Amino acid sequence: xxxxxLRRFVNYAILTGLATVFAYIAASSFFRPRNRYLGRNPxxxxxxxxAILSAQGVNDKDPVLLRTWWWIENFVTAPFTxxxxxxxxxxxxxVQMLGDPGVWLKFWEQEWLGRSGVSxxxxxxxxxxxxxxxxxxxVWGAVRQYKASDQIISYSSFIxxxxxxxxxxxxxxxxxxxxxxxxxxxLITFTKAYTPGLEGFWTV
Length: 204
Prior knowledge:
With 204 residues, this protein is mostly helical.
């Protein structure tokens, strides 16, 4: 039994690692961090933009596989170097999440706690929606058993269940970005937890 559990654990660890790498490659291939720095006032020259992007490991002038390797290297050595990369303002992610090591932060003031709350809300909402949609699709597929619609629902369910959450999140962001670009305006926003000035009963 112990061998079986260990074997399953190793299999899941390998699958998680591969899914994470593929998600990073997909994000690196579609997203354009350079656009964050274009059109700024005062404008940044190309050399400065390249320097910032290179420090973050997301310079689109570098091959995707090379950036992926740097990212894996930083991830593996992070526990020893306290380096998980930098954000768009070139600030260390570790410092952003846990605060400056030289400054004591109270437990409830740490950035990761607020982000955990956002993740928990998204998890609850997603679970409720998945349950409602899943039950409805299951009932509809059962009524139309062995028909094309039943097969489509079955295969779609298998794909969705097999796709790790973070990979699905990256794919949704890619779809939202493509949709915004096609429409020519920002219809879907998927950054930050709150929108300043937005009011209404739907805000959480």
